[in-house]
Amino acid sequence: MLVYATSLIFIVSALFAMLGMGGGMLHVPILLWFGYPLKTVAQPIGILLNGLTTLVALITYARNKLVDWRGSWPMSLAALILAPLGSIVAHRVDDQLLIFLLVLMIFFASIRTLISAKKIEPKAYTLTTKHRLIGIFVAGIAAFVGAMLGLGGGTFISPLLMWLGYPTKRAVGTSAFIVTLSSASGFVARIGHVDTSWVTICVLSVAVIVAAFIGSTLMAKKAKPQWVKYAYSVLLIGVGIKLLLPIM
User: Fold this and answer.
1) Where are the domains of the chain?
2) Predicted pLDDT at 119
3) Does the pTM exceed 0.90?
4) For 213, how many CA atoms within 13 A lie in the half-sphere containing its CB?
């Protein structure tokens, strides 16, 4: 069971690293499909793997100068503060409701990414004060909701940065920075609820670290943003349908 789960998580982690996301949106469903409990394994381990994926991706993007450190720190701070609150709230919410909300996030991300895939890549960007305030608000809410569902918030943050005018590669690099911080703080708030073996944690962690390195390197050097977005959207739609069927 662990072998199959690890293989699937490796594949999705590589893809999500190419988008500046951690993959928690699919890590959680994969762990659920293989019988792991939602709140004591799937969600806390999902957010841990999410953070590891974006951390490795962040290193790659930083080396290629694709991270807007200066422009993103207010959004990062908001995400860092609100993610633990989402993790705490998760234990007071019904499992079925959490899964339903996760499906909604999956469909939202797929549709939003398909829309952005058709847009022309901007050559330059300038954040206005209005855009900065919107970014802080959305990043904070994204981190809260993401941590509540076992994610890192990249579902909203990457599309948000693209909407603010960031070129795709700059957006995913900057998103990796914000999501790494929100995942770290979200996992810390859940660490006391983890109930699984260290073998499982270590095997899955190594898999996502390797996958994130491969995915982020491909995105930084070779991948075409539009093709990555289309592949990501199709994958999410399929997962959303799969998750939705058992609770309908």
Assistant:
1) 2-247
2) 66
3) no
4) 5
